[in-house]
Amino acid sequence: MIHVPKTAGTSQIKALRRNKYREERLLPKYSLQNVRRKLQGTRFPASVHGKAKEHKEVLGERAWEDIFSFAFVRNPWALMVSNYFWWLQIASDSKHERLSKQAEEIRCLGSFEKFLNSAYGTEMIVDHYGSMADWIVDDKNQIIVKFVGKFENLENDWQHIGRIIDLKDTRLFHHNKSNHGSISLTR
């Protein structure tokens, strides 16, 4: 699973954990041993929000091709609205000094429009650098995940993934939600 920020990734991770879905089920034995050997004594570069190309680099070509990789994307406008309110509501309450400071910078911008035109709106999704596409493509801009689901079709696409990876419980519960109404720009 490639976790594009603000695309229900936390809900998906919790559903996978609820199903006791572990790396042993994702990777054939040779791949899992190879990954563990590569990671021994290193810091895993592919974080929770790691991009597909980072995961592929760590796993290697053979293992990457053997697994079912997937990610979700969403309407870019809805993503930016969610991103903006995440900063105002969730990051501003963070215990991490860096996030709190950045949230204050965003609050000081004073408007959603100014946020969109700032580096926070043009170069980042929450506190991660990159566009949505950056999470699912390689250096040649080719999509390298096997399935790209749509946030707007989350339930159906998650059911599809559940059938492929044999999840017994495919329910998704909403986690890490920012609260907001609709938002528009007027000129």
TrEMBL record:
<dbReference type="InterPro" id="IPR027417">
    <property type="entry name" value="P-loop_NTPase"/>
</dbReference>
<dbReference type="GO" id="GO:0008146">
    <property type="term" value="F:sulfotransferase activity"/>
</dbReference>
<dbReference type="InterPro" id="IPR005331">
    <property type="entry name" value="Sulfotransferase"/>
</dbReference>
<dbReference type="Pfam" id="PF03567">
    <property type="entry name" value="Sulfotransfer_2"/>
</dbReference>
<dbReference type="GO" id="GO:0016020">
    <property type="term" value="C:membrane"/>
</dbReference>
<protein>
    <recommendedName>
        <fullName>Sulfotransferase family protein</fullName>
    </recommendedName>
</protein>
